[in-house]
Amino acid sequence: MGEQHVVTRCGYVAIVGRPNVGKSTLLNHLLRQKISITSRKPQTTRHRILGIVSTDCCQTLYVDTPGLHDGQQDKTLNRIMNETVLNTLHDVDAILFVVEGTRFLRGDERMLGHLAQLTIPVMLVINKVDLLAEKKLLLPHIEQLSGRYRFGEIVPVSALGGHNLETLEKLVQGCLPEGPFLFPVNQVTDRSSNFMASELIMEKVTRQLGDELPYEVTVSIESFQQLNQVLHIHSLVLVDKPGQKKILVGKSGKRLKSIGMAAREDMEKTFNSKVMLHLWVKVRSGWADDERALKSLGYME
Length: 301
What we know:
Low-confidence stretches: none
Helix content: 25-40%
Shape: globular
Radius of gyration: 20 Å
Order of helices and strands: EHEEHEHEHEHHEEHHEH
Strand order of the largest sheet: 2-3-1-4-5-6
């Protein structure tokens, strides 16, 4: 008896939708670990992030994307983020279009317009169903949306609560083409440790500042070195105006210290190492509208 040939499947699946519908939370729960930053502030995710889930016979390559959004189109950063989303649509084998409960806003309509031009399978993922006050409204909402587009599947989930994610995973695996795995089975992302460190700092900045958060804030890792069992990370938080620096540093530097402590705790879990984090805030005017600056900050990869 010859050994049985196991058929493997591997493919890319984009997670798309307007800002704040829970795309990054969904990715983290599908991966069963955190690689994509989350907050209640729209536009937390600014980069295309790959999350890899490997089973015995399937490797699913989830692509988390920035939220497709209107407004601030004059900013180069916004244009690049929207281009990232739209380019991703043509590079994948299937799409998860994430919406929020029974809300279907202008941003969702815009996304649906882009999906209408595609021939690959699109699944509608209705997230945050656990938060619906009127559960009976969900079925008519699903019927109405299924009349608008021929979705491969419509799956109600709660990304945060983990509800119905196994069903979603099985449906996704059924869309993947046959082929060899593209990454080692123990790898969970294609992003570097530097990138992960900058994202963790950005998440804490976003959560600490909330509504005070200026749009023109980003994080740059200046150095990342392992010395004697300790990871030494030097990082800059860049803002556009001196007043934004003042908000970020806080009274007597308290806010920046709090951001640094929270980021360091997460880094120690992520990198499984003691971390010394050195954090500075620097004003660099116009960085969000400067292609060269955006390229050096990794926004145009």
